[in-house]
Amino acid sequence: MADKIHAALNFKPFEGGSGCTDDGYQVNILAGNDSARPYELLFMALGGCLYSTFEEIFKQKRLNCESVAIEITGNKRDEVPMFLKECNIKFTVKGADKEIGFEKSLVLACKYCSIYRTLEHVAEMKAEITFV
Fold first, then answer.
1. What class, spelled out in words, does domain 38-131 have in CATH?
2. Amino acid 3: pLDDT
3. Boundaries of CATH 3.30.300.20 in the chain?
4. Residues of the chain scoring pLDDT < 50
5. Tell me, what's the pLDDT at 103?
6. Bond before 38 cis per omega within 30 degrees
7. 96: helix, coil or strand?
8. Is 122 helix (H, G, I), strand (E, B) or coil?
9. Which of 26, 30, 27 is nearest to 13 (CA)?
10. Which among 46, 43, 106 has a CA at the least distance from the CA of 76?
11. What pLDDT shows up at residue 59?
């Protein structure tokens, strides 16, 4: 059976709130400048899930790099409901030993990342990789 996922959120009307994990990690949500908005949290979740899948694949391929940076941008539809319309993901890999291996790893990561696969049902998803 899959791991149970749980988060608890508390809000005060018109003031925002916070979400907390079972491990005690807390993030402010919709609380002005000191907080994240829902789509920012969604993109962070996507980036974290996609990176962990990518890392597992390039680890299995015995590839190495110095670091990986991910930028995610997107647009919502103009009509209601305002679903995510498109999502662009840019991986920048620094110090890759075998670029073609990392390119193939990203293709596979997009195939196996559950959040990516969930979002592709409503949005046009694009992922690219560059090397520095």
1. alpha beta
2. 83
3. 38-131
4. none
5. 97
6. no
7. coil
8. coil
9. 30
10. 43
11. 96
